[in-house]
Specification:
mainly beta; globular
């Protein structure tokens, strides 16, 4: 599931061959089920990739495909640059940067078995697998630094605004904030349960976490102090989404979505 700034929410599910922009349009189906999707910054386009190696950029207003390509290997993860001009598509041995209008190759990053990718910093790309994360300079396509953890796993990575810090979590009930210049740990925040997802809130001074017991909490990204917490939900927790530009936070569960005001707690 992904959210377009101020406009739509899109839902996809395992085994589905179509994506629905809720209350707006259905994007034409293909033969294979959708693996993942990302909104472009203005919400006017949507990137999807499926288990049949097909990558499609859709017009969300008309539901028509703007361009598509069938890759040789299955897409493991993908993301969109903040200006909407490029996308990054990662297979098991590389991350290809593509022009978002035409699909033409704009660069490649030689990444070994990426588990996730994030291009929201613009000038830098963050990639990670289960025990290693790397920060890449987009212009030179070289690594800025590499972070490796032999004592922990990496399941989630999120950059802070500006791309100078990023945060991670794994199954060790710990959230770590890292420097994107040196890949050194700046702050560790311990939890009592596995952290399912992290959201960096607008401004970058706070982050939110959702744990496996359904508890949502707001933390200071400077001190690690807990600022607010919500009682665990009885529903299975899935992910967190921070709204762009304001203090709202969406906690997504198996059968319900809850939107909170992260400032007032309502």
């Amino acid at each position: 599931l992904d959210m377009a700034p101020f406009r739509y929410i899109v839902a996809s599910c395992s085994g589905c061959a179509a994506a629905t922009v809720w209350g707006h349009s259905v994007l034409g189906s293909r033969a294979s089920s959708i693996d993942g999707l990302r909104f472009f910054p203005l919400g006017d386009r949507l990137l999807t990739w499926d288990v049949g190696h097909l990558v499609v950029v859709w017009d969300t207003a008309t539901g028509k495909a703007l361009w598509e390509e069938r890759r040789r290997s299955r897409i493991r993860c993908a993301d969109i640059f903040p200006d909407g001009s490029r996308v990054v598509l990662c297979t098991k041995d590389e991350c290809a940067i593509r022009d978002a209008s035409s699909g033409r190759v704009a660069g490649e990053l030689r990444v070994e078995v990426p588990f996730g990718v994030d291009a929201s910093a613009g000038n830098r790309v963050l990639t990670w697998n289960f025990d290693t994360a790397a920060v890449w300079d987009v212009a030179s396509r070289r690594q800025v630094c590499v972070m490796s953890r032999s004592d922990a796993t990496i399941e989630i990575m999120r950059p802070f605004p500006g791309g100078r810090r990023f945060t991670s979590s794994g199954v060790e009930n710990q959230v770590v904030i890292w420097s994107a210049d040196s890949c050194e740990a700046l702050l560790e925040i311990n939890h009592t349960a596995w952290v399912v997802d992290i959201a960096v809130l607008a401004g970058g001074d706070k982050l939110a976490t959702l744990t496996s017991v359904g508890e949502t909490a707001i933390w200071s990204a400077e001190s690690g102090q807990m600022l607010r917490t919500w009682q665990p939900s009885r529903h299975r927790p899935l992910s967190l989404i921070g709204f762009p530009g304001d203090s709202r936070l969406a906690a997504l569960y198996l059968s319900v979505a809850i939107v909170w005001n992260a400032t007032s707690g309502e």
